[in-house]
Amino acid sequence: MVVGERKPFEEIMKMLEGHKKVMVLGCGGCVTVCLTGGQDAVRVLSSQIRMARDKDGNPIEIIEKTVERQCDPEYVDQVQEIVPDVDAVLSMACGAGVQFMAERYTKTPLYPALNTTFVGGSVKEGYYVERCQTCGECKLAYTGGICPIARCSKSLLNGPCGGSTKGKCEIDPNVDCGWQLILDRLRDLDQMDRYEQILEIADWRTSRDGGPRKMIREDFQR
Amino acid sequence: MSGECKTDSRLEKLLRSGKFAVTGECGPPRGADPEVIRKKCALLKDKADAFNITDNQTSVVRMSSISSAVIMMQQGLEPVMQMVCRDRNRIAIQSDILGGAALGIKNMLCLSGDHQKFGDHPQAKNVFDLDSIQLIQTVRRMRDEGKFLGGEEIKGVPRLFIGAAENPFADPFEIRVPRLAKKVAAGVEFIQTQCIFNLKKFGEWMKGVVDRGLHEKVFILGGVTPFKSFGMARYMAKNVPGMDVPDELLQRMKDTPKEQQADEGIKIAVETIQQLKEMPGISGVHIMAIEWEEKVGEIAEKAGLLPRPTV
Amino acid sequence: MEEFEPIIVAFCCHYCAYGAADLAGSMRLNYPTNIRVIRLPCSGKVTPVFILRAFEKGADGVYVAGCMEGDCHFIHGNLVSKPRVLYVKKLLQEVGLEPERVDFFNMSAAMGPRFAEVAREFTERIKQLGPSPLNKKYRKKSDQAA
Fold first, then answer.
1. Which neighbouring-strand residues pair with C11?
2. Which residues in chain A have Cβ-Cβ distances shorter than 8 Å to B117?
3. Pairing between β-strand A127-132 and β-strand A168-169 as defined by DSSP bridges
4. Would you tell me how many other CB atoms lie within 10 Å of the CB of residue B198?
5. Hey, which chains touch B, using 3+ CB pairs under 8 Å?
């Protein structure tokens, strides 16, 4: 899933300065799963905003709403009656959701309530870790199912570097050395011979470096 | 190892003629004053065969490796231009290789580079378009095939003697010999190792290297760093990732009175060099006297490495 | 000027604190009338939204009372609740309210006197802090004064 983290409250309040009526719009997708942008998060943030503004004698009216996903036009359309009625929309979706909203509703300011942080998963409730950098050319088959681009701090395709110490990364003793994980797994799979194959210089065109990306399923095009 | 030189590097000539080589290190200044390098050069001249010019080491901004190397050459010393993958993509890397070679640089050391977290600009975006092994492949391809990574032909190939670093002490230990093998397969010609304090562990690694015959495919220079003080020894033991300082060495520094600790550090370095000279598969030493350049000569002298041979 | 009488919402677990409140009554123990008890099936039912809504509506203080650790009727409801309630302290701080206005207590159904004691102490704590800036009754007065 896409993991997001709520922006500092102060920053959010600054965005809303001057607005009297806003919609706080949650997203039922990834950010609901990681507990930062779903229905519950909308209620908490709305409550906080109302209290902060009320306290300063500058009340704000908030419409609390959550749609299934903000990265799909049909769900984004569901708030078309509300948007013209508010000064601004504070979206609790990931960066993709915020932009889908902004593209659909051109006359209303759109603000992000989250910082979109990474593509990852939850190791347990409320604990999320990065696993993928969306490089566009998956190399997991060669590295024991553990990604050197996402898991090595230097994204070394032929690691580990000289800073790997007792299984941990040189940048932080709380960060696992990605290459140690790869090697442990290769050993378990009895594929240690793969380590000595040099991974080729990557073609980053498939990554963000090639410009904004698209994925088109021809059979769905009309 | 084949005696045929691929470049005009003095270091390469020495190594291929079977001489025990000595390299040193020179860190560029954090400013634009060339005098700093000239002063360091005056201390280092004739004390070793070639000198690494670090490339923004520990991710702290310094004068560029290429320009510092040029200033060094003007003083009559032979530089080894270090290049890290942290700060440049393949376009800048190849461009700098051409530029360095054009200015007369003859040796190059291919490194991944420290993570920027350790430096003075932890906010920086890192690049790592290539890693150190791929960088070795890149220089080899440019020099031996006369081609850029993109496949286009190079007019006027960069003739550089290609080196890399290896840390025998980092984890996991079991892949440290295979990792060297990967660098050899990528085409590296000489290796400078991480600072050796734990000779026993280094010996184990070297045995693995010799067993696989890697020492016949690459020149290995053992890394030596003198302790300035017990404090420095302790810092290296505790705070520098991938550094292995045995307790008995720490104790030895600790037991030495403060004013004699520098001498003791040099003594340890000299002893290390003497043992390395006896070790099968070792072609030379790399003396890294960090901000202590004036001691390189003393260490080389005491270890019986002076005067340096001419080629 | 009349004395500040805070509005305090106490979310009480049916299996412990609510029973303790009952017992305190049977024992004729005195505790402040500022406390508004809301019965829940478990303290684990509380989410930050409950607490924030109470403050929005003008509560001066909110606390959650759950079972003793290890005694939850639903195994770990009280263990889930406690860190959540403490997290609300941070949310209040962001808004500009004192984090002391919210808290979590453990007690059993047999602890009538403890229930009364917590009620007294918490009320005293909120009296010291003064009215919440969102308490409309006192706000109007201070606005008029200004």
1. C38, C64
2. 153, 171-172
3. unpaired
4. 18
5. A
Of A153, A158, A196, the CB nearest to B134: A158
From chain A, the residues in CB contact with B185 under 8 A are 196, 198
CA contacts within 13 A on the Cβ side of C96: 12
Give the architecture (CATH level 2) of A2-118: 3-Layer(aba) Sandwich (3.40)
Given a contact cutoff of 8 angstroms between Cβ atoms, the answer to whether A24 and A46 are in contact is: yes
Q: Do B170 and A161 touch (CB under 8 A)?
A: yes
CATH number where B15 lies: 3.20.20.220
* pLDDT at position C142: 55
Can you list the residues of chain C whose pLDDT is less than 70?
1, 140-146
- Please state the domain extents for chain A: 2-118, 133-210
Across the interface, whether the CB atoms of B112 and A170 are under 8 A apart is answered: no
* Token pair for A215: 């994925």
The vertex-A90 CA angle with A88 and A93, nearest 5°, equals: 140
CA distance A161 to B112: 7
**DSSP at B103:** T
The whole-angstrom separation of Cα A155 and Cα B71 is 34
ipTM associated with this complex: 0.91
Q: Check residue B3 and give its pLDDT.
A: 74
| Residue among C49, C96, C133 minimizing CB distance to A47 | C49
Compute the distance between CA of residue B307 and CA of residue B300 in angstroms, rounded to an integer: 9
Contacts of A40 (CB under 8 A, 6+ apart): C47, C48, C49
Among A154, A163, A207, A195, CA closest to B135? A154
Give chains near A: 3+ CB pairs under 8 A: B, C
Interface test with C, best of A51, A56, A64 (most C CBs within 10 A): A51
* For helices B261-278 and B230-239, angle between their N-to-C axes, nearest 10 degrees: 60
Per-residue pLDDT tens digits for B273-289: 999 999 999 999 999 99
User: Which among C52, C134, C143 has the least Cβ separation from residue A44?
Assistant: C52
Q: A48 and C94 in contact by Cβ < 8 A?
A: yes
Would the CB atoms of A52 and C133 count as touching at under 8 Å?
A: no
pLDDT in tens, B89-143: 999 999 999 999 999 999 999 999 999 998 999 999 999 999 999 999 999 999 9
> In C74-111, which positions are buried (b, 16+ CB within 10 angstroms) versus exposed (e)?
eeebbebbbebbeebbebbebbebeeebbbbbbbbbeb
Average pLDDT rounded to a whole number, residues B167-182: 95
The CATH class, in words, for C8-145 is alpha beta
Whole-angstrom Cα distance, residue C64 to residue C85? 8
CA-angle at A103, arms to A109 and A29, nearest 5° = 95
Q: Whole domain around residue B254: which residue ranges?
A: 10-302
